[in-house]
Design a protein that fits this description.
single chain; alpha+beta; Aminopeptidase; 5-stranded mixed beta sheet; 4-stranded antiparallel beta sheet; globular
């Protein structure tokens, strides 16, 4: 099992996993992934097992304490000096599910954010997934202003440093 940063050569595999794991109204487009891979590849991690891509996690760094819809489509909003590591997508191919891989990807992102001295990690998720993220220490801040894909999301925040609560 290895973690590595995604490259443009991984686009087909990433898109295939995305389209299996998310409904069309929520799934990121291949062009959106291209922009993310061009602008913040160092924040787009893959997990491989036995030479196969198991899943991925990605998100820009921002100065905002919550995710807004513009961030999903405008990779240029990435701010490497921002205090918050976001999570735009966490996905594991169905054949690899129920092996703890989603948790390993999340832990990897959290460790990277902590090593970069970020204030915390932010994400949005549907209500039924809040418990999964709370296991990592995320707080549910309630219903998000994000309406990405026409859905209702919850803002989730993991504070890595006390300065993030300011």
């Amino acid at each position: 099992m290895i973690f590595r940063n995604a490259t443009i050569n991984d686009l087909a595999a990433i898109s295939a996993i995305e389209n299996i794991c998310f409904p069309p109204n929520e799934a990121a487009s291949p062009s959106s992934f291209v922009k993310r891979l061009e602008v913040f590849p160092q924040h787009f991690w893959l997990l491989e097992a036995e030479g196969e891509i198991v899943g991925y996690i990605n998100g820009m760094v921002t100065g905002h304490k919550t995710i807004n819809d513009a961030m999903f489509e405008h990779a240029a909003l990435h701010d490497e000096n921002g205090a918050w590591q976001s999570v735009f997508g966490l996905a594991v191919a169905p054949v690899f599910r129920n092996n703890g891989y989603a948790g390993k990807l999340m832990q990897h992102l959290i460790e990277k954010a902590a090593a970069q001295n970020r204030s915390g990690v932010i994400l949005t998720c549907k209500e039924h997934l809040t418990g999964f993220y709370q296991k990592f220490g995320f707080e549910d801040l309630g219903v998000s202003q994000s309406t990405h894909g026409g859905e209702i999301w919850h803002d989730m925040t993991l504070y890595l440093h006390l300065k993030g609560k300011d």
